[in-house]
Every structure is written in structure tokens, then in C-alpha cells.
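Students often ask why inverse folding is considered easier than folding. One informal answer: many sequences map to the same fold, so there is more than one right answer. In these notes we will look at a single instance of the problem. The structure comes first.
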């Protein structure tokens, strides 16, 4: 229970609507977690994994029709459709509320209603924000405990501050025909019905920390972004350089955040601050300061192996929840790319048969507390955050886009971010591998009109006297045979090295119409066997290809019409003219 009147009244109101058998206020204690786990083991919601190799680890198999975010069922409900923008699905807030009331009516009969107070960000950080999620899913509760600072401490902060985001969730019937993820940014509320999966159901993550937070951030002068945060420490023991990077879903944030440098970088260390979401605010010193609002990882399992992300593997052998992975004969979790073991049962619990497709669902995930990551940095707990040296944008682009280039200015960097495109992945329901525009990796996550969002980015830049430099990377170029041309993963350290050298003013760069590229000799390729000509190709600016690309970017941005900031149009014109010269 609580002494905050608004919260008490809202919980009462929701209970009246949804008619649960019981109401449980979550304390966030280990004992509560264990009780919930025991209940879910008993009713089959969770399956115990091998207690010798994976103590405290459980498997959840979701409904086969509920395995990813559903962008076509996700809405931003502002009074004016233009405030949600062409980048969002829009519904009139009154209509949306009525529809959701209809779905939620009596939906928790026979179930327990859990009230989850949570804090996004270090509990004593001025940049942190609180929310309360009401849900009928104990699986959501245990995930929220790993993913956020959840329970009594968060409730105490809510009672001190008096403000919180309201999120109401029910798994409903898990029927895709009765599924909606609704956001009401003007009322700071979220309503999600009919899915128990990831960003649809763990409302602190995409719904609160991105869609609602981006809307709040605009009003309050900060940014809520789909970015990892890492720190790079060199053997010289100078300051740690912090970098935030935005890549679309399943495009490499978790992997980059936990990078282990290759052998030639002896003595270098990459620290993990966050792997998915970054809240950043201009500091009094004119720099941009960032926090990770999350306390856990909800990471893509497939592709996580000893050769790609050993830090992730190391944190997954105890106290983790796996969703939709396969299991081995001896009940160990398994997925494609793990590099050891064999699947016995697939993600649906069927005996593994290659004819049924991959053993683990391509969007199967692990949930684990950040503190279990070997590269996790204590600086992630700093209330004021970490100062950023660089911001990096990137996507999956088989062709055209070079390995790395640098924007000439903050405003040009905003164009580079707004012009991002990437091949779609299994993180959202729908076709995979289709190139789509995904500005700043926020297409599914911006809670307002992208035109206003680009304008807000430009405004933030004006307040920074020491802005981070902005870069674009692409780890995903392919050759004629469909093989990745760049080895990626730990080897991406070589690109980070160049980025930091640029930030420190230690190396020159080559100007091009799209931005500044490395001189081939400035990328450290020692110990790397790149076939002849590959580096040249990765650093080449294909003028004709880019003229076409910039034409497409122009047509995309034209969709935002007169709301599009003039400064962005001017940047586009400048690049377009340079390409035609
Ligand atoms: P979300 O959690 O959905 O936001 O994804 P993410 O951006 O954190 O992506 P993640 O790091 O989980 O990577 C997704 C997939 O891309 C995995 O299968 C990785 O193995 C693969 N991947 C990550 N980094 C690289 C890279 O540098 N090169 C290549 N070729 N693949 C990569
Ligand atoms: C993403 O899709 O970007 C994720 C996974 O991080 S989910 O939490 O499901 O949104
Ligand atoms: Mn993500």
C-alpha cells in the first residue's frame, strides 16, 4: 500500500475495472522473487534449467503467436494526430481509452494483480524517473525486478516526488486480434493488452523509457534514446572516453557494449554502462551527460557465443531468465551461434527437427541483471551519469554505407542520424531483411512527430559548448558471395580507437561529400587478415550510389513537410550539392 493518494486511487480504480482476485504490492525483495518463481515453476510458466551448470536459471516459452514487438499494434494517442507524426500509428485518445477499457474490463478475474513501483535510472539520480506498472503476469514481475530498480525504494521515491508514469498491462487472452500497446504521452500513461513479450509487456523499457520519456525529454530539455553506452580505457590510464551508440533492434548494441578488445589492444578495456537505452542531458560544463535508465539486459540470445560476446556468455550461467531458447538433453539453454552443445527440444518444446526451422526463436532473449556482466562499470551508478565524447549511429547495410565516417558538425550529425536506414530484424513481427528508414534507431520508439524530434536534437546541440562528435558506422557490409566483409564484434575496437583519436584531435581525416573518413593507414589493422582490397571498399564513397541514397533520404524527409526544421533541409541540400559537384 502507499500514502501517495494518486497512486492509491489509481490502483483502486484499476482493480474496479479489471476485477482481480488479489492485489499484490511488489516489494522487490529476493524472497518475493523466489516465491513468484516457485509459483511459476509449479504451474509450468517457468521451467527449471540445469541446476549444476545454470543455478537460478529458468526458461519461459511464450505463446508462439507472441514472440516479438508488434509495431502495427503500437499507438501514440495524442489529441492532435500531427503531434504523433507520420512516424507513429495514431488513435484518438478518447477512442483508444474506450477500446482499452473494453479489453481490460474484468480481465483479471481469477488472477493476481501485481503493483510494481520501479525507478528508471540510479535511485538517487536527478535524471532518473519513476513509474508504476500494474500487471497480471508474474513473469513480467520477475523480469521487471531484473530490468529495473523495483520495489520499496522506488515507491519511497514516488512518495517523495509525487509523480510517476502509469502503466497498465494484462496478458489478456494472448490473442493477436485483441492486442494493443497504447501510449498517452499527454497524460503520461501506457496501456498494453494481449502480449506477454518483451517491450510489449515490460513497460519500463520501450513504452516508458523511450516513447513516454522522449516526449517528456523534449519538454524538459533532454534526450531519451535507443542507445548503448560504453567507456573505453587505454593503457596510458588517461580519462575513460564514453560513447553512446544508436543501432536499430538486433543490430549490435549489446555486443558493442560488452566488447572485448583483440590481442593487439593489450591493456585496453571496454566498460559497459548500458546496452539499449540512454537518457542524456546537457551538463553545466557544456558536455552531454548520460545515464542508463535500466538495471538489466533483455538481450538477443542467437549469435551470443564465446567467439562473439564472451562477456555475455559469462553472465548467463546463473540467475538469468531465458525466453524462447532451445534446451539441450541435460536442460542447458541453447541457441544458434552459442558454439557448444546440441539442441534436444526447440523453443516450442518440440523434439528438435531442422525441418521446423531454428531451434531457438530468432528473437529469443535472456534477462539478466547488469551487475552480472564482467565489464559492468560502477560509473553506471553515478547519479549525474557519464560525459560523452562521441555519439555513433549505425545500421545493417549490406551495400553502400562505409565502415565509418564522421559528421562535420552537430547539425550534420543530426542529418546523419535522421537519414539512417537498416534492414529489418526478428525483433519486431513482420518481414526480415527489408531496408527501411529508421532515424536514430527510434522509428518504433519516438513518442512524438519525428520532425519535432529532429528539431529538438538541433536545439540540444545549441546548448552544448563541448558537444560529442557524431559518427556513423556499418559492421554489416557484404561481398558478392553474401559474406560479411568486416569481422565485427571485438574487432570493432579498431573503429572505436579511430573515433577516440578523432575526438582527441590526434588524427587527420579525409573529407568527402557524406562526411570525414579514416585514412587507410590510421585504422589499426595489426593482427587482422583482411583480404586485399576489402578495406579500400569499406572506406569507399560510391558517389553515384550516394546520389541515389540522398534522393531517397530527401523523399523520406519530405514526408514531414513544413514541420521539418530548416537547418536539417539546409544540411541535406549541402550534402546533395557536394555529391553533384
Ligand atoms: P536489441 O536488444 O533488439 O535492441 O538488439 P541489439 O542492438 O542489442 O543487438 P545485439 O547486440 O543483440 O545483436 C543482434 C545480432 O547481431 C546478434 O545475432 C549478433 O550476433 C549480431 N551482431 C552484433 N554485432 C555484430 C557485428 O559486429 N558483426 C556482425 N556480423 N554481427 C553482429
Ligand atoms: C528491441 O526490440 O529493440 C529490444 C527488445 O530491445 S524489446 O524489449 O522487446 O523491445
Ligand atoms: Mn532495443
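Output (designed amino acids):
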Amino acid at each position: 500500500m502507499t500514502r501517495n493518494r494518486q497512486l492509491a486511487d489509481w490502483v483502486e480504480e484499476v482493480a474496479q475495472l479489471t476485477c482481480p482476485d488479489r492485489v499484490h504490492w511488489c516489494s522487490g525483495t529476493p524472497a518475493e522473487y523466489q516465491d513468484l518463481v516457485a509459483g511459476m515453476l509449479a504451474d509450468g510458466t517457468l521451467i527449471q534449467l540445469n541446476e549444476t551448470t545454470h543455478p537460478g536459471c529458468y526458461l519461459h516459452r511464450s505463446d508462439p503467436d507472441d514472440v516479438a514487438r508488434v509495431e502495427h499494434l503500437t499507438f501514440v494517442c495524442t489529441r492532435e494526430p500531427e503531434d504523433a507524426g507520420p512516424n507513429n500509428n495514431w488513435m484518438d485518445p478518447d477512442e483508444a481509452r474506450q477500446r482499452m477499457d473494453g479489453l481490460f474490463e474484468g480481465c483479471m478475474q481469477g488472477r493476481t494483480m501485481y503493483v510494481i513501483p520501479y525507478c528508471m535510472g540510479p535511485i538517487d539520480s536527478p535524471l532518473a524517473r519513476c513509474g508504476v506498472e500494474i500487471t497480471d503476469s508474474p513473469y513480467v514481475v520477475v523480469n521487471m525486478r531484473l530490468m529495473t530498480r523495483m520495489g520499496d525504494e522506488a515507491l519511497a521515491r514516488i512518495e517523495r516526488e509525487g509523480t510517476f508514469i502509469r502503466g497498465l498491462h494484462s496478458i489478456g487472452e494472448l490473442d493477436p486480434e485483441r492486442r494493443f500497446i497504447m501510449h498517452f504521452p499527454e497524460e503520461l500513461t501506457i496501456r498494453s493488452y494481449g502480449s506477454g513479450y518483451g517491450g510489449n509487456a515490460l513497460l519500463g523499457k520501450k513504452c516508458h523509457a523511450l516513447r513516454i520519456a522522449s516526449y517528456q525529454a523534449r519538454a524538459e530539455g533532454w534526450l531519451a534514446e535507443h542507445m548503448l553506452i560504453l567507456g573505453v580505457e587505454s593503457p596510458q590510464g588517461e580519462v575513460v572516453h564514453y560513447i553512446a551508440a544508436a543501432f536499430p533492434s538486433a543490430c549490435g548494441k549489446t555486443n558493442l557494449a560488452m566488447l572485448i578488445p583483440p590481442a593487439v589492444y593489450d591493456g585496453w578495456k571496454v566498460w559497459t554502462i548500458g546496452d539499449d537505452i540512454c537518457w542524456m542531458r546537457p551538463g553545466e560544463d557544456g558536455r552531454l551527460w548520460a545515464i542508463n535508465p535500466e538495471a538489466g539486459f533483455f538481450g538477443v540470445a542467437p549469435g551470443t557465443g564465446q567467439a562473439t560476446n564472451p562477456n555475455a556468455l559469462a553472465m548467463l550461467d546463473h540467475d538469468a531468465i531465458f525466453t524462447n531458447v532451445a534446451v539441450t538433453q541435460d536442460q542447458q539453454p541453447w541457441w544458434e551461434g552459442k558454439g557448444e552443445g546440441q539442441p534436444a527440444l526447440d523453443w516450442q518444446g518440440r523434439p528438435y527437427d531442422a525441418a521446423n526451422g531454428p531451434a531457438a526463436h530468432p528473437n529469443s532473449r535472456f534477462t539478466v541483471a547488469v551487475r552480472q556482466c564482467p565489464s559492468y562499470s560502477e560509473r553506471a551508478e553515478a547519479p549525474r551519469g557519464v560525459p560523452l565524447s562521441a555519439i555513433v549511429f549505425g545500421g545493417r547495410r549490406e551495400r553502400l554505407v562505409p565502415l565509418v565516417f564522421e559528421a562535420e558538425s552537430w547539425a550534420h550529425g543530426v542529418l546523419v542520424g535522421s537519414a539512417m536506414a537498416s534492414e529489418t530484424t526478428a525483433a519486431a513481427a513482420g518481414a526480415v531483411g527489408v531496408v527501411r528508414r529508421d532515424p536514430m534507431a527510434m522509428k518504433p520508439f519516438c513518442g512524438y512527430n519525428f520532425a519535432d524530434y529532429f528539431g529538438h536534437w538541433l536545439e540540444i546541440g545549441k546548448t552544448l559548448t563541448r558537444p560529442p562528435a557524431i559518427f556513423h558506422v556499418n559492421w554489416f557490409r557484404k561481398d558478392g558471395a553474401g559474406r560479411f566483409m568486416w569481422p565485427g564484434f571485438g574487432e570493432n575496437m579498431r573503429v572505436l580507437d579511430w573515433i577516440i583519436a578523432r575526438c582527441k584531435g590526434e588524427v587527420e581525416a579525409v573529407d568527402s561529400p557524406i562526411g570525414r573518413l579514416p585514412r587507410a593507414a590510421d585504422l589499426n589493422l595489426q593482427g587482422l587478415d583482411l583480404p586485399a582490397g576489402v578495406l579500400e571498399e569499406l572506406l569507399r564513397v560510391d558517389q553515384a550510389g550516394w546520389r541515389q541514397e540522398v534522393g531517397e533520404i530527401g523523399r523520406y524527409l519530405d514526408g514531414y513537410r513544413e514541420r521539418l526544421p530548416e537547418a536539417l533541409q539546409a544540411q541535406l541540400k549541402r550534402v546533395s550539392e557536394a555529391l553533384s559537384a
